[in-house]
Structures are given as structure tokens and as C-alpha cells.
Amino acid sequence: MEIFGRPLSAMLSQLLLGLVNGSFYAILSLGLAVIFGLLNVINFAHGALFMLGAVLAWMGLEYLGVNYWVMLFAAPLIVALLGIVIERLFLKRIYKLDHLYGLLLTLGLTLVIEGVLRSFYGVSGLPYSAPEALSGATDLGFMVLPNYRAWVVLASLVVCVGTWYVIERTKLGAYLRAGTENPRLVEAFGVNVPLMVTLTYGFGVALAAFAGVLAAPVIQISPLMGQNLIIVVFAVVVIGGMGSILGSILTGLGLGIIEGFTKVFYPEASSTVVFVIMAIVLLFRPAGLFGKEK
Amino acid sequence: MKLTLKPLAIALAAATLAVSAQAQEKVKIGFITDMSSLYADVEGKWGASAIQMAIDDFGGKVLGQPIELLTADHQNKPDIAASKGREWIDTQGVTLLFGGTNSGTALASAKVAAEKKRVYINNGAGSSALTNEQCTPYTVHYAYDTVALAKGTGSAVVDSGGKSWFFLTADYAFGHALETDTATVVKAHGGQVLGTVRHPLNASDFSSFLLQAQSSKAQILGLANAGGDTINSIKAAKEFGITKSMKLAGLLVFISDIHSLGLKDTEGLLLTTSWYWDLNDDTRKFANRFFEKNKRMPTSVQAADYSATMTYLKAVQAVKTADADKVMAQMKSTKIDDFYASGMIRPDGRFVHDMYLMQVKSPAESKKPWDYYKMVAKLPGDKVFTAKADSKCALWK
Amino acid sequence: MVNKQFLGYALLLLALIAAPFLGAYPILVIKLLCFALFASAFNLLLGFTGFLSFGHAAFLGSAGYAAGHVMKVWGWTPELGLLAGMVAGAALGGLFGLFAIRRQGIYFSMITLALAQMFFFFCLQAPFTGGEDGLQGVPRGKLFGLLDLSSDLVMYYVGLVIVVAAFLLIVRTVHSPFGQILKAIKENEPRAISLGYDTNRFKLIAFMISAGLSGLAGALKTEVLGFATLSDVHWSMSGSVILMTLVGGLGTLSGPLVGAAVVIALENKLGEVGNWIAAVSGIEWFKSLGESVSLVTGLIFVVCVMAFRRGIMGEIIALRDRLRAKR
Fold first, then answer.
1. Which residues in chain A are closer than 8 Å to C52, comparing Cβ atoms?
2. Mind listing the pLDDT tens digit for each residue in C237-260?
3. How is residue A292 annotated by DSSP?
4. Which has the least CB within 10 A, A160, C113, C172, C267?
């Protein structure tokens, strides 16, 4: 059986690989969406913190002999602490201003973080392998899928669904959503909004670091690894609708798949296709696919 | 006001003239490369260190004056490379402009040097246009170029049995050049190209492209890309088990890439290089001295930086002037023979020397740190670099 | 007050005229002026109409390629090359504008980014741009077929005249009735509409003027340096012009000039500054400062947003106003 002149099995495998890449987009854009939703800040530093997660995974193994599984939790925690410091020191002071300033501030932080790591580790990248337990591959009939890639999809789906559940279905999530709409009113109910905001930022960037550790065994760990990704993830968030949790997850996965098929039919354009989609979506649905128009 | 300004301006102009006249005889080397971005580990600040080593070994002085080295980071922006080069020549009297990685910056700088009649040496950039379509009388392309890599790898791999190829190509001019040059050689040697896929630069995920390569059932996967793209392709190829059915041939791989990936992911990879630190006693001697200083083994580009600086300084000493025309004539007429390579600089500015087809060792074969390559074939220089028939350079007719 | 401002600009102009004789390197100064013009054109859009474009690199780059192509391949004279660049920038701006001006805030930025990325892809694929090798070896030629521009000094003064003229055009635009309407749209668009203005048309024209002048800057840069490359159309160039405008002072006329000077000086001179600090202070580390341009740029971003939100010129103007208020 063939689709557009390609064997079905090939299309299936591309679909699966697209899903793997989409998982990375989903976690990253989810973090951005959470931060934007509550803080109204476009966190350009997300790419750098993603990179930091991957570098921390490597550092853990290199200097402390700590394995992948520990770092999968430790790295997001460390990055979350860093995020809390960033929020308290810098972001707190600029909430009232135009989006522009948040974007520029985090862009500046990105350059600083990348610059510091580059001066220590150069740009060629650091070696890192998948943990033993996940190192094999499984024959699915239509393709051989490395177990690690399957794990990436699984882990990110769990994290995404978990986050969505907490925000949309729990009381804590209700406070968060209410804080987005009307912080003063929520404060009147005795909720410590500034603390909530700080922790949300910490959580958002922890997601970035989590994606970073997940990516460490499959792509080159280098101080510049976040740069190419961040612009794409921005586009994902905008297409999904700024601040929409579900939108960012679904768009992330969907774009991964579309990108995957582009890699077959017009590979040269596979890194541009996301921008084409963004332009089209914004023309017809100005607030993104899942966003509410204000 | 007017009265005081005019003499001042004249005095200033005279002073500038005097400075540049004097600077003619003082040798100044201006080195511009990528020190902070994509290609920083291939050459970067360690390239500057290699040049400084050559200056020190030469005695630090030539024509009775100390040799000066200026360095700058062009951040991969041709704007910065060309305007910095121009400024150095005009205001500092730089006699040798030493250009680094990135073809766009290299071609722009070569133009500036030619316009200002200064020697221009490049090691880091791969574009063969430097000594072909865009050749100038003042350009020396010293280390490698895309043609040599393509021809070297292509012919040697086909001759050793790798008949059918699939290309994974960076959708960039250098990727296209590497791919077409290699494909031509592969076909000429009786091999065939089963397919090709062109990926965008900095594509972080290569699994999709690799599956396409795998389904072609080719024996050899030619990686016509560079830097992070090559690293990510190799990583994914290993992960998806592609290395079991196909042999990987990296067309533009440096030892810094292998070092960062580790042997586990790279074993068996075929690649072409202009130099390797563990070839013989001379190369080891240089490499160990370099290691002492920089805590890393030199890449082929960094070794070429040392050698090219020496070649230039010797030529200046021989003709007793830093005049670019005389120095170029001397460099092109003298045989070069040192730890880096032996051969001649052709009229088009191409330094023709042997290249090496290497295979990356397995972790078990590697006996010491940085023990990464074993030699598969020595590729004679006159076979791998651009042939006279293919040259569009007016200087070589 | 107006006189004082005028005096300031006159002094700056005098300094620029005298610069080549005071030891400044003319090519660096003219490159700086190109970016100053680029930043001013960008500021015309952001500072005076409130639209943050994340795709201005496309206008700078397209003009560079257009000018380079007509001068190198078709042998046009420099003034026609500059004109071609300006037209290319404005035309592309018109195209972008058609899509973008209907959206606001961050969505406007994102559409411009998306379109600019597509344009980058086009430049990468199109054969005449030379891919990452760039369009190289563009001759400077003779202005109007008469004045040979191959001398750096002649080129400098011709470039200076062009940039000053373009800058005057920007000043004129800001203070014209047209500029007032743009300000009105920025402050309160519904009211401007209710006053009977077709705001979309005004926004589109403003976008095209900004793009056209960015194009002029790009074409001039190609004319001076002799090449156009992909780095001119890359999104980091769009980021760079935002930095210049912000550092200098958003919405001030002189800010972009100062901002461009700071950023270009940083890119070109940081290494030398580092060596100098190392020599004075004896701390070796500063010698590697030249490799840390992006790090220092990042720090400036942060400091700017945290402490000097109005930018250098913005803060100076605010300080002056405060002092005057006290008096």
C-alpha cells in the first residue's frame, strides 16, 4: 500500500518520529505557555534553560558519577531554583511593562547563560549516552524504534497530561487560572500571589530542563543547542494560542508530525514549514488555534 | 580656528603617512576567525595559539623588528571580518591577513586583501572558490578544501569496495559542493549514487532523514554536512542501528568533533583530513608541545596555522621585505616541507599536499587519550585538489 | 531649546565630517552610519507607531542583495543600485505590511518573524544570493558614472550625505502631519478611526517607509563593503536592531544613532578594549573578552531593561526635563 507514492510503512515510521520530536516541542511550549499565562512574560531564556538541563545531565555524570535517572529529577530542580532566583531578581520588576521588556530581558539572560557555558565547554558538544536500560531497539514491523525514543514520547506525554490536569482540574490550578484573570481578587482571598507567580516560573523552566535531560542522549549537547529550538517553540506557542495549555501540547505534537512529513516530501523546507503555518494561522485565527480573543 | 586646524590636519596626515611607510617593513599578522560560535573549536583561539607558537619558534623577530599578532573574533559575520581586515590593513599596517573558518567571511576577506595588496592565508574555510572562480594573486589556501575532501573520500571509499552511496547533505552551498564533487568521483570510479536528501542547516533531529537513507539500501552514507549537523547525524545513525547496515563517510569532520562525540558513537566512521597528530615523530612532537600549552590536541586546521605562519615568515626573511608581491612570488616558488605537509603552492594559491583517508578506531583499539584514527589510505595531492582542466582561475592558465 | 538640540546635531555632523582626519577609520564609521540609519528606520516604526517588527533583517538583506545584483551583474551605477535596494526593501515591506498590520502586539511581531524566516529560506535557496558564500565582489563603481567611489574617503563623504539626507527625511516624517497621525494611532487607534482616518493605510505607509529606509541602509552597506550575505537576513540581525534601538532610546530621534554606535563598537572593538584593560589592570582574563561579545551584549540587555529602560538618550532627555522642571 502506498500514500503519495511512498510505502505505508515508511509513512507510519515518519509519523512516529514526528511524534517523538513533537514531544520535545510539547514540553517546551507547555512551559512557555504556563509562564506566559500567569506572568505575561515571553520567556526567551527557555532555550538556554533547556540547554542547561542537558549540560547539567552531562555534568552530573562527568563530575559526580550521577546517572541519567537521578539527573532527570535533579536537573529540573536545580534549574527551577535558578528560575526562582531569576524571577525574584529580575522579572518581578518588569511585570507592569510592555511584553517587549520581558522578551528583551530574557533574551539578555539567554546570551549571558550561553556565553558563560561556552567559555567553559566550547561549542563542539559533550558526549552523553542513553542509560543502559533503554539502549536497545524494538522492531515494530514497519520500523526499528530505539527504546529511548519511545521513552521520550511516554515521559513527555505523562508530564504534559499531568500538568494539564493540575492546571485545569485541581484547586491549585483554579487559583492559578484565577490569578491570571484577576490577581488582585485572588490576593483578597488570602492567596499569596507573588509566591505563586515565582513558583510558576520555577515550574515552567523546570519543564524546559526536563526536556533538556530527555534530549541529552539524542542530540548534541552544546551551549548553542537551545538557540535553534527556541524560535520554533515560540512559533508553536503562538500557533496554539498564547497561554493556552492544551493548545501548546496539541500544537507541539501536531507540528512535530507535520515537520516529519515535510522531511520526506520537501526536506529543505522542514525548518521553515512551522513559520508558514504560523503565518497562515495568524491570518485566519489571530489568537491562535486554541486562544481566546480578547 | 581655521588657521589652527589646517596645519594640524596636514601634520596628522603626514604622521599617518609616516606610520604606514614605516609599517611596510614591520611584519604584523592579523588573524580573524570564529572564536565564539559554531566553528570555534575547529580553529578559534587555539589557532591564534598555534600562530603565536610559530612566531616564537621563529625567534619573535623578522627584518630586525618584532613580529606582532592581532586577533579578532568575526562571530561568523562577514561584515565584521571584512571591515576589521580592512581597518587592520589601513590603520595598523597588517602585512598578512590570516582568515579563518566560514566561507562567506573568507571570500569577503580575500577580496579586501587583494584590493589592498596584502598576503591572505586561509586555513579554516572549505570553499574551493577561494582558489577557483574567486581566486586572487594574494590568496593562499593552505589546509584543505571541499574538492579535496570530496575527491579524496569518494575515490578511496569506492576503491575499497563502497560502491553504492546515499548522501545526507546540508542544504547550503558547501553541502551542495561536497555532494556533487563526491558524486562525480564516485561515478567516475564505477560506483553509483542511489539517492540524496538535503536537510536544513542546524536540523537537530536526523532520524527521519536517516530512515530515508536506510531504505535506499546503499552501502555508504556520505555526510555532506558539518559541525553540529554531522555530530547529530552520527549520533542518530548509531541509535537507529544504521551503522550496522551502512558505513558512514564524513566529508567534513574534525578531530574536535570526534573528541566531543566519543569513540563509542563514532567507531568505523571514514573521513578525510589534511593532517593528524599521530602520523609520525614530527607530528607527535608538534602535537605534544601544543598539548602542553592548550590541554588539547591540535586539529588539522590548527596545525596548518602553525605551518602557514612559518612558511610566510621564512618567505619574508628570504626576500628581506614584507612587500606582498615579492613574498607571494617567494612562497609560490619554494617547496614546503615540514611536519604538516610537503608540496608546493600552485599559481592559483592552492597549497597542494597529500591528504589522508582515516577510519575512527573502536574504543578497544584506542590506547591513549586522543588516539582516534587509523590511516586507510594516503591520498596524493595532485589527485585530490582541483585539476587544471576544472580551474576557472585566470592565474593558472 | 530647539536651538540647543539643533546645536547638538550640528556638532555631531561637524564631528562626522572631521572624523576621518581625527583618526577615526572611515569604513568603520560609515558602517556604523548604515546601522544607525537602519536603527532609525526601525525606530520610526516601533518608537513612533508602536509596532515591534521582528523581521526587519529581511528589508536590510533584500536590499543588499538587490543592490549587489544590479551593480555586479547588470553593471548599474551606484545611485541606481541604492535606489534598487530601497525599492526592494519598500516593496518587500509593502508585502509584509499587507499581512502584518492587521495584527497587534506580539502577534504583529510573530507574523513579521514568520515572513522574515520564509524570506531567509528564499535567500538560502535562490541561486543569485550565493548561499552562505554570499554575493561577493560587488564593485563600488562611479556615482552618476562620474565620481569614482573606490577611494574610502570619497565613499565616506558620499555615504555621509546619503545617511544625513535619510535621517532628515525621518525627522521630517515624524514632525509632519503624517507623523502626528501615526502618533495618534499609537496612542488611541479607535479614536483615530473615529476621526475618519483610514488607520490601516497609514500604518502600511509607515511600514513601507521604514522598510524602504532599512533597504537604503542595506544597499549602502553592500556598496561600501562590497558584499551581501545571509547574516543580513538572519533573525539575529532583526534582534540586533531591536537592541540598538532599545540601548539608544526608544522613540527618541537620536537614540538609534547612539545605540548603533554602542553595538557596532562592541562587536568591533571589544577585543581591543579587553586587551587594554588586561594591560592596565594586569588581569589576564580580560584578554579573552573579545571572544565574549555575545555575553557582554547580553549583560547590556539586562542592565538596560533593569536600570535604563528609556535607553541612553531617553535617560538623558528625561534627566534634562527633570532638571528644567526643578528650575
1. 100
2. 998 898 899 888 888 888 899 999
3. P
4. C172
Note the pLDDT tens digit of each residue in B341-374: 999 999 999 999 999 999 999 999 999 999 999 9
Q: Which residues of C touch B84 (CB under 8 A)?
A: 268
CA angle, corner A29, sides to A143 and C110, nearest 5?
A: 115
Q: In B, which residues are within 8 Å of A20 by CB distance?
A: 205, 207
pLDDT in tens, chain A (294 residues): 566 666 777 788 888 889 999 999 999 999 998 888 888 888 989 999 999 999 999 999 888 988 899 999 999 999 999 999 999 999 888 887 877 788 888 989 998 999 888 888 877 778 888 888 888 888 887 778 888 989 999 999 999 999 999 988 888 888 888 877 777 888 888 888 888 889 999 999 999 999 999 999 888 888 888 887 888 898 899 899 887 888 899 999 999 999 988 988 888 888 889 999 998 998 888 888 887 765
- Contact A101/C106, CB-based, under 8 Å? no
Q: What is the largest CA-CA distance in chain A?
A: 63
Residue of C nearest to A273 (CA): C118
Closest chain B CA to residue C34: B79
Check residue A36 and give left, alpha or beta (phi > 0: left; psi -120 to 50: alpha): alpha
C239, A107 Cβ separation under 8 angstroms: yes
CB contact under 8 A, A278 and C114: yes
Rounded Cα gap, residues B93 and B24, in angstroms: 7
Q: Do the interacting molecules here have an ipTM over 0.85?
A: no
Is any Cβ of chain C less than 8 angstroms from the Cβ of B177?
no
Residue among C25, C134, C293 minimizing CB distance to B78: C134
Distance from the Cα of B95 to chain A's closest Cα (Å) equals 30
pTM equals: 0.86
The three cell numbers of residue B139 are 590568496
Q: From CA B40, how far away is CA A125, in angstroms rounded?
A: 11
List all residues 6 or more positions away from A86 whose beta carbon is below 8 Å from its beta carbon. A45, A109, A201, A205
| A257 in reach of chain B (CB within 8 A) | no
Q: A115 and C295 in contact by Cβ < 8 A?
A: yes
Decide: B143 and B307 in contact? Cβ < 8 Å: no
3-class DSSP state of C11: helix
**Shortest distance, CA B34 to any CA of chain C (angstroms):** 9
